[in-house]
Amino acid sequence: MVKGCIDCRHYKGRDFFQETPARCLAGNTDVMNSWWEENGSKTRDQEVTDSSCFEPTENSVRLDALIAQTKQVLDVIKCA
User: Fold this and answer.
1) Fewer CB within 10 Å, N or C, the chain?
2) DSSP character string of 20-66
């Protein structure tokens, strides 16, 4: 799991309709802005660094578990 701001439970994305910028609901907006500066323009083949104050959302935890289970199933299929 990439422990970045986009998957953090405190991340509040930009509201385009009300023109409010993205922010951290835990008060770590400076850390969030720094993380985005460092990682925001990276491509899929570049390593993304972890955020120091990351707390996963329930969905990201479930997605990681699903990916792990899918890899296990694929390994079993390859052995068969």
Assistant:
1) C
2) BPPEETTS-HHHHHHHHHHHTT--TTSPPPPPTT--B-HHHHHHHHH
Region of residue 27 (left: phi > 0; alpha: psi -120 to 50; beta: else)? left
Instruction: Write the CA distances from 72 to 12, 41, 45, integer angstroms.
Output: 33, 32, 23
Q: Which pLDDT tens digit goes with each residue over 55-67?
A: 999 988 898 899 9
Consecutive H or E run containing 69:
helix 58-79
Helix (H/G/I), strand (E/B), else coil: 15: strand
Task: Give 36-54 pLDDT, tens digit per residue.
Answer: 899 888 888 888 888 889 9
